[in-house]
Specification:
single chain, 255 residues, alpha/beta, Rossmann fold, 6-stranded parallel beta sheet, two-stranded antiparallel sheet, 13 helices, disordered C terminus
Length: 255
């Protein structure tokens, strides 16, 4: 965990998130590969934080990760509420794309695990098309089910990638990584949720201006209205952060 020891972090409702930029993230991934494994990278958003409130195992995994990326505009808003702004949002999609470019330059090898049938393969094809020379050590679907673990771990260990991206969805993907991290023999393992679907073109991402404006959540809600229950995590999260901030001020004034 040496590469992130000096990096500032913020804590939201008991969940730690590192205050890093996208460029710093690429530098850290490079350092992790150079150090050797294992390193667990997580992408934290308000939904993760709220999920962690009721799932202690997930909360512990997020807090013990070697790098916790601020993937969610709600985290940036919460940091402002706390009076300690963060640098920028670092998404899972952008991190996979950036890591592919890094890997092509440095000769690192990637393994893509998870998503629906054919998605990891299409993701690999597009990443290689955008980054000539990129080596994909392997792709595989599977699931985070315990009965599949030994076979999947053996497959990954045999491929010996430098970075493993797991698209099983949270919290399953990160629990799976944490449970198997020390036998994967991979320097970097990262849960990426639906990143493969975006890269493979199965799901359309919001226009760049909406991403910059912090409105990507609205774009997804319009296109996938069934997500409205999950989107409630954002206002619930911000209300809790405000309440925590007010409570902290009240306690401070009484001291």
């Amino acid at each position: 965990m040496t590469a992130t020891r000096e990096i500032a972090s913020r804590t939201f409702l008991g969940v730690r998130v590192h205050n890093v930029s996208g460029a710093e993230t690429m530098g850290l991934l490079d350092a992790f590969v150079q150090e050797g494994g294992p390193h667990h990278v997580v992408t934290v958003n308000p939904e993760f934080v709220m999920e962690a409130q009721g799932v202690p195992e997930f909360r512990g995994i997020l807090n013990n990760a070697h790098l916790a990326l601020p993937d969610g505009v709600g985290l940036l808003l919460a940091a402002r509420i706390q009076g300690a702004p963060m640098k920028e949002r670092v998404t899972g999609v952008d991190t996979v794309v950036g890591a592919a470019a890094l890997a092509a330059r440095k000769g690192y090898r990637l393994f893509l695990l998870g998503a629906a049938p054919g998605v990891a393969e299409e993701t690999a094809r597009r990443l290689q098309q955008a980054n000539p020379g990129l080596e994909i050590a392997g792709t595989y679907g599977g699931s985070p089910a315990p009965e599949e673990e030994d076979e999947i771990v053996a497959r990954i260990a045999a491929a010996a990638p430098d970075m493993l991206f797991v698209a099983y969805g949270a919290p399953g993907q990160d629990i799976w990584i944490a449970r198997n991290l020390h036998r994967l023999n991979v320097p970097v393992a990262m849960g990426v949720g639906g990143a493969f679907d975006f890269i493979a073109g199965r799901t359309k991402r919001a226009p760049r201006w909406m991403q910059r404006a912090g409105l990507e959540w609205l774009y997804r809600l319009v296109r996938e209205p069934w997500r409205w229950r999950r989107m409630l995590a954002l206002p619930r999260f911000l209300i809790r952060v405000v309440a925590e901030r007010v409570s902290g001020r009240a306690e401070g004034s009484q001291a």
